[in-house]
Amino acid sequence: MNILLRYRKFCIGLIILLTIGFFFGVGKLTINFSFESFYPKEDPEFQYYEVFQEMFSEEQNYAVYIALQSPAKDIFDSTFLAFSDSIFRKMGSLPNVDSMVSATTFEQIRRMGLGIRRRPYLDFSSQEAVTQSRQRLEKDSTLVGNLITRDLRYVCAYIFIDPLLFDTKERDVLVDEIDEILEASGTEYIISGIPYIRTGYVKKLQSELVIFVTLATLFIFTILFFTYRHLWGIIIPFVIINVSLIWTLGLMGFAGQSINLISEMLIPILFVVGMSDIIHLATKYLQEIKLGKSRVEAMQTTLKEIGLAVFLTSLTTAIGFASLMVSNVPPIRDFGLYASLGVMITWFITIAVMPAALLWIRPESLMKAQAIDNHVLWDRLLQFIYRLISHRQRLIVRLSWVTVLVSLLLILRIPMTTFLIEDIGKNDPIRKAMIFFEKELYGLRPFEIGIHAKEGYKITDREILVEMEKIQDFLNQKGYFSPFFSPATYVQQANYFYHNNSPRYNRVPDTQQEIDELLTFTFLNGGGELFSRVVGRDTTVARISARVPDAGSDVFNKLYAELDSFVVNHCNHQIFTYRLTGHAYLTEHNLKYLRQSLMGGLGIAFVVIGAIMGLMFRSWKMLIISIVPNVIPLVLTGGVMGLFGIPLTTSTALVFVIAFGIAVDDTIHFLTRYRIEILQGHNVETAIRNTLLGTGKAMILTSAVLLGGFLILLTSNFGGTFNTGLFTGLTILFALIGDIIILPILLRMFGGKHL
Length: 755
Description:
three-stranded antiparallel sheet, 11 strands, 8% strand, elongated
C-alpha cells in the first residue's frame, strides 16, 4: 500500500492513459435486448427448438394482434367494417409485413364440383349483406373468439412480421408504423402480440437506463455533498466512480459485449457499490487526522488498518457477482463476469487515487462541522446502540430467534410460479392489452408440440392422425385452448369441406384411402403450402399448435404432467413420440433452470466467502460467527417475500446472490477492527465498544449509500427490476442491523479471543 503513496503521481498518470484507451472501448458498446440470447445454446431443449423452428415457423411469435372497437353495440355495421378493412389492408401493405389475416378478409371455403369456392365470412358490401353474414356466423362461429371478440364489439387482425426482423431494430420501426396508422385512424383500438410486447420492453428499458444513470448520479452527488460539504469531496469520488465505469464498459466494448436486459443494471450498481470503499477510506483517514496525526501518518495508519479490509470487502462482493458465472445463460454469466471485474477495478482505482487525493486536500476543509461526517449525533447514536446491545442482549437474542423462525416458516409460502411477462405491472397498458386478448381471443401464448412418427409410420397414416386427434380432444377439455393447427385438423377440415361443410364429417376419415384422396384433393386446390406448415418434408415429423392464456408455470406444469399421463395410458405411444417445445415453453424452462443455477451460485458464494473468512481469522468459531449475521438477512428477506406472496423468479433469485456478496462487507470491516483491538491487548468488551464506535459510522454511511442506490431501481416499471432494487435494499438494511447489533452480541457470547 505504501508503494502506491510513494509512486502516486506515476499511478495517476498511468490511470489517465488507460482511461483514454478504455474510452474508445465504450464507443464499441451496442444495445442488444434480444430475448433469444438468454437461451443456453448447449441446452437440449434449445437445440430441439432450433431444429423445430427450421421445419415450422412459430407464427404466433411474429403476430401483432389488433382489435378495432365498433362505435356501435356490435361490429355488424357496413361502414365500420369497410373502414376497418381499409385500416387492416394499409397495415398489411407495410414493408417487412410477411402476411395479414383479418376478419374482413377471412374467407369461407366450400366445395364446388372438383374444386372449391371462396367467399368472405363477412360481406360488408351493403348493410343487407352484413345482416346475412351475421346469420351465417350464428351457424358457423369460426371467426368468433379468433378474429371477432366474444362480446362482438371488436373486429380483429393479425399482422405477421417478417421472421428475420424478430429481434432487430426494424421490428421496432414496423411496430411504430402500425401504431401511427392506428393513431391516425381515430378509432379505439387495442394492440398486442409478442413483437409489440418486445418493442415495448426495449423502449422502457432504454428510457429506464437513462433514468437510472441520472438518479444514481444525483444520489451520489447529494450523499457526497451532505457528507463532506466540500467541492473536491464531491468531484474526486465522482471521478473515481466514472473512471471505474469507463474501464468496465470499455472492457465490455473491446470484448464485443452489449448492454442487454441484465447488464443495464450494471451502471447503477457499480455507482453505489464503488462508494463503499471511498467512504471507508475517507472516514478512517479523517478519524486519524482528528487524533492529531499528520496527513501522511494518518493515511499510512488508514491503509495499514483497513487496507486489507477494503480489499476483502471488494473481493467478497466480486465473488458474489462472479458466482453468477456458473449459469449457462450467457447474459447472466457475462453480467457476473463484468460486475465482478467492475468491483475489483473500482477497488484498484480507489486505492490508487483516493489516498493521493486526500493527501492533496487540506483535511481542515473536509472536517466542516456542518458536514454529516462530523455531526455530533454520530457519537450519541453509536453510544445508544452500544448501550442497547449491552443492556438488552437477552431480549435481542430472543426476538432474533423468533423473527428467524417465523421467516423460515414464511419462506415455505413463497410462490414458485412464473409468467412470461411477469415483469410488467398489472396496470401497464401492455399487460391490460394481453389480458384483453386472453379474455376475448384465447390469449397470445404459443403452445407447440412436436410429433414424431416411429420407424415404419408416417404422419399421414390414419393411426397417427387418430392419436393426434385424441391429444387435441384431451387438451380441448381444459377449456382455454384455441382451435388447433395440426395435420389432424388439416385432414378434419379437408373432410368437412369435401363433404359440403357437413358438421358430421369434421373428423378424421375412417379409412386410409379416404385420407389419401382428401390429401390429393387439397393439394390440387392449393393446400400444399398449408400442409407444409404442419408436416415436415419427410412426413415423419409434425406439429400441434395452438394459443393459450399465460396462466402461469404451475398451471402448465400440471398440464404437462396430465398430458404425459394421458399419452401413456390412452394413446398408442408405440407408434409415435411427442415433445413439448415452442418459444413460451422454452422461456418457461429457461426461467426454471436459471432460478436453480442462481441458487447454486449462491451456494458457491457461501463456500468461497466462508473460506476467505476462515483463512482471515483462522478459527472455525469465528467463521460461523461471521457467517450468521449474513445468513439472517437472507432468511428475513425470504420471509418478507413469503409474507407478501412475492414469487421466486429470476430477478428475486438474483437478489440473494448479489446481496450476500455485498452484505458481508460490513462484517469484514467490523471483524477486522475487532481483531486489531484484540491484538492491542483490549478485552472482548472494550474491543466491541471501540470497534462499534470506530467503524459504526462508516458502516451506516456505506449501507445508506448502497440502500439508496438500490432503491433507485424502484423507479422501474418492470417488476423484476423493481423487486431487485427493493429486496436487495431490504437485505442490505437487515445486514446492517445484523452487523451492528447481532454480530457484537455473538462476539460477546462466543467469540472470546479466537482470532
